[in-house]
Design goal:
The protein contains eleven helices and no strands. By secondary structure, it is mainly alpha-helical. Helix 2 packs antiparallel against helix 6, helix 2 runs parallel beside helix 11 and helix 8 packs across helix 10.
Length: 265
């Protein structure tokens, strides 16, 4: 299960999606999320689905790589579907049943919305390095510096968090393997017993995380890191023609979904 968590991973490439400016991808993903929540009918959801599949095809990432990240979310997706099926009023499938046609339709739409949301955000991290992603976010948020918002500190924390997610997952996997070799059982028993069995994992994991944080702080201090003031970037970000085209398509896509919503499609 831990190996299925792909959040924070970056897959290098030279595709159209990879070459886009990080700021372009951040704005496009934001517009994509707004369009996804604006979709109301099946035509709107189909448009968002086609846009997602098109971006996946342009990124040249294997579908199994993208959908692999959905495995840890299966429980939440299934729970969302069940809640919508049983708690949505309407016309019962069979007289006397609490399951309605409207509940089934709403459940399918909610599951589709969650899946598309996860795939869209994962596609952003898969095609953008954590450093480029945080640099782009810092540039987009730079106007907030006027009101003394610590933009650089916020983005550097996000960068470190994304960077160490795969490391912590690998560390957790090693600890679990070591505990299993000593006879620990994480898969049988009741939910309470399995939760208690995780305690021997959490303690060394927290110790390892704090140790890594301390080592990182010492490394940054020894390199005279002092925040964002006066810092420069090795790679300067510039919008190209492809970025303007991608932003225009994103705006048109959002406008199209809003129009479809107005017509109830």
């Amino acid at each position: 299960m831990l190996k299925d968590i792909t959040l924070g991973q970056y897959f290098p490439g030279n595709t159209v999606i990879h070459r886009l400016d990080p700021r372009t991808k951040l704005i496009a993903v934001l517009l994509y999320i707004v369009a996804l929540f604006q979709a109301k009918g099946w035509v709107g959801y189909a448009a968002v689905l086609l846009a997602s599949l098109g971006c996946m095809a342009l990124s040249k990432l294997k579908p199994k790589v993208i959908f692999k990240g959905l495995k840890p979310m299966i429980f939440i997706i299934a729970l969302t579907a069940l809640l919508n099926i049983f708690y949505t009023g309407g016309t019962p499938i069979i007289p006397g049943w609490i399951i309605t046609w409207e509940g089934i339709v709403r459940a399918v739409q909610m599951v589709l919305r969650i899946v598309l949301l996860i795939c869209g955000t994962f596609l952003l991290t898969y095609t953008t390095s954590p450093i480029a992603l945080t640099d782009g976010l810092e540039l987009l948020m730079s106007p907030l510096k006027v009101i003394r918002v610590p933009v650089h500190e916020m983005t550097i924390m996000m960068s470190m968090a994304l960077r160490f997610i795969p490391t912590l997952i690998e560390e957790t996997d090693k600890i679990m393997s070591a505990q299993k070799a000593r006879g620990a059982d994480f898969e049988t028993g009741s939910l309470v017993s399995r939760a208690k069995a995780l305690l021997p994992i959490l303690v060394p994991l927290f110790v390892s995380a704090f140790r890594r944080a301390d080592e990182l702080a010492i490394a940054m201090e020894s390199r005279c890191y002092h925040g964002g003031e006066g810092r420069t970037r090795m790679k300067q970000m510039k919008f190209a023609g492809i970025d303007y085209a991608a932003l225009a398509l994103s705006v048109l896509f959002l406008a199209g979904v809003i129009v479809l919503r107005k017509f109830g499609l």
